[in-house]
Amino acid sequence: MKRIALLSDTHHSLDTRFFPYLENSDEIWHAGDIGDISIIEKLEEFAPIKAVWGNIDNQDIRLQFEKIAKFMCEKTYVIMTHI
């Protein structure tokens, strides 16, 4: 079974208290309001990322991610969006 770390609303900042949980994750899902692409770059150091953009996210983030992500995870259909 995959270990998924799910977070959202980082708003330009990634609290280091999350790092122990991220280190043990197989995937990280970010449900929007990332704030800065550097957050994604930092998260990618821990595990592969799936993300959507939120209402505060700029054009760079919106070009890289969709508003609504649809994917399969271990035979489960997942839909992720910010709001």
Average pLDDT = 97
Distance between the termini: 27 Å
According to DSSP, the number of beta strands is 5
Helix content range = 10-25%
Describe the strand arrangement of the main beta sheet, using strand numbers: 1-2-3
Class computed from helices, strands and strand pairing: alpha/beta
How large is the count of helical segments? 3
Shape: globular
Largest sheet: 3 strands, parallel
Which segments are poorly predicted (pLDDT under 50) over 5 or more consecutive residues?
Answer: none
- Taking all Cα atoms into account, the compactness measure Rg is 12 Å
**Residue share in β-strands:** 25-35%
Order of helices and strands: EHEHEHEE
Any descriptors?
alpha/beta; three-stranded parallel β-sheet; two-stranded antiparallel sheet; 3 helices; 22% helix; globular
Summarize the structure in words.
20% of the residues are buried. The protein is 22% helix and 28% strand. Strand 4 (68-73) and strand 5 (76-81) form a beta hairpin. It starts with a strand and ends with a strand. The protein is of the alpha/beta class and 83 residues long.
Summarize the structure in short.
The chain has 83 residues and is an alpha/beta fold. Helices cover 22% and strands 28% of the residues.
SSE order and pairing:
Elements: E1 4-7, H1 19-23, E2 27-30, H2 37-43, E3 49-51, H3 59-64, E4 68-73, E5 76-81
Parallel strand pairs: 1-2, 2-3
Antiparallel strand pairs: 4-5
